[in-house]
Design goal:
- The structure is a single chain.
- It contains ten helices and eight strands.
- The protein is α+β, with helices and mostly antiparallel strands.
- The protein folds into two domains: 93 residues, Rossmann fold (3-Layer(aba) Sandwich), CATH 3.40.50; 177 residues, 3-Layer(aba) Sandwich (Biosynthetic Threonine Deaminase, domain 3).
- α5 packs antiparallel against α8.
- The longest helix is centred in the N-terminal third of the chain and has 15 residues.
């Protein structure tokens, strides 16, 4: 009987350091094989159970279904059964389960994409995504010539993702797939940002927040409306399932008269609220 050096507590109902002696004796006689699953696959199983039955299972209760889904991908023409037991889920865990279930279902991809640091680059990149649903779009000015953008995007299947990667490569965008990078999923997507680069003119940046509707093509529409006259120096967007998404946008306004940018923003079909004097922005982002 193997003794684990460490035990994850996410599925606490099955979090044991070492299997019991009597349990192990039964398993040796009755079980043909063992399947392991990731936490993301476990979250996807919790979501499947809820969507099919409107029952909210705890992670350990959905473990059998997660394993069955993995087993079912390797066989065909068989009826399969998984027993779901346990609904003792902590409310605090729900947001984590929702976020990671898309990755567990292999429907959300996380990409790091390099774009030229110049006005209009965001729009050109967004057009490649077309009407695909963008779940996340994070960027902070850090270099004079190249910008790194963290993009979350929903894809229907692997074939659709392959087509997207081909379009990015065909349009000369260099990218890295971070979907299965644990640090990216656990930390990086929540940490993108920081102070402006020393290469930029600090006093020229103005910060705004606004909302736009969550629907396919909304990000492209937003960037088209914004135009390419002003350079975007900060952009944070995260789709959390609401009807509207909150966007934080930094704009380099190098013209002495700020009224031109104000007039342009007022002409758009979005409600911009300036936050340039916000204390949190000054301490952590400016």
């Amino acid at each position: 009987r193997v003794k684990l050096r460490e035990v994850g507590l996410f599925a606490d109902g099955v979090a044991v350091e070492q299997i019991g002696k009597h349990n192990f004796d039964v398993i040796k006689e009755c079980v043909d094989g063992v399947i392991t699953v990731s936490i993301d696959e476990l979250c996807a199983a919790v979501k499947d159970i809820f969507e099919d039955t409107r029952v909210l299972s705890e992670p350990a209760g959905a473990l059998a279904l997660a394993g069955l889904k993995k087993y079912a991908s390797k066989i065909s023409n068989k009826r399969l059964l998984a027993i779901s037991s346990g609904a003792n889920v902590n409310f605090e865990r729900l947001s984590y389960i929702v976020e990671r279930s898309e990755i567990g279902e292999n429907r959300e991809k996380l990409l790091s994409i390099k774009i030229p640091e110049k006005p209009g680059s965001f729009l050109k990149l967004s057009k490649i995504f077309g009407r695909s649903q963008i779940t996340e779009f994070n960027y902070r000015l850090s270099d004079q010539s190249i910008a790194n953008v963290l993009v979350g995007i929903k894809t229907e299947n692997e074939e659709a993702f392959k087509k997207l990667k081909y379009k990015l490569s065909h349009n000369k965008f260099k990218f890295t797939d971070l979907t299965k990078n644990q640090i990216s999923n656990d930390h990086l997507r929540h940490m993108v940002g920081g102070h402006k680069s020393i290469f930029s003119e600090k006093d020229s940046e103005r910060l705004f927040r606004c909302q736009f509707p969550v629907r396919p093509g909304a990000l492209v529409g937003f960037l088209k409306d914004f135009g390419a006259k002003w350079n975007i120096s900060l952009f944070h967007y995260r789709n959390l399932g609401a009807a509207f998404a909150n966007v934080l946008i930094g704009i380099e306004d190098k013209v002495k008269d700020s009224s031109a940018l104000d007039k342009h923003l007022k002409s758009l079909d979005y409600s911009f609220i300036e936050e340039t004097e916000n204390g949190a922005y000054k301490e952590f982002l400016k």
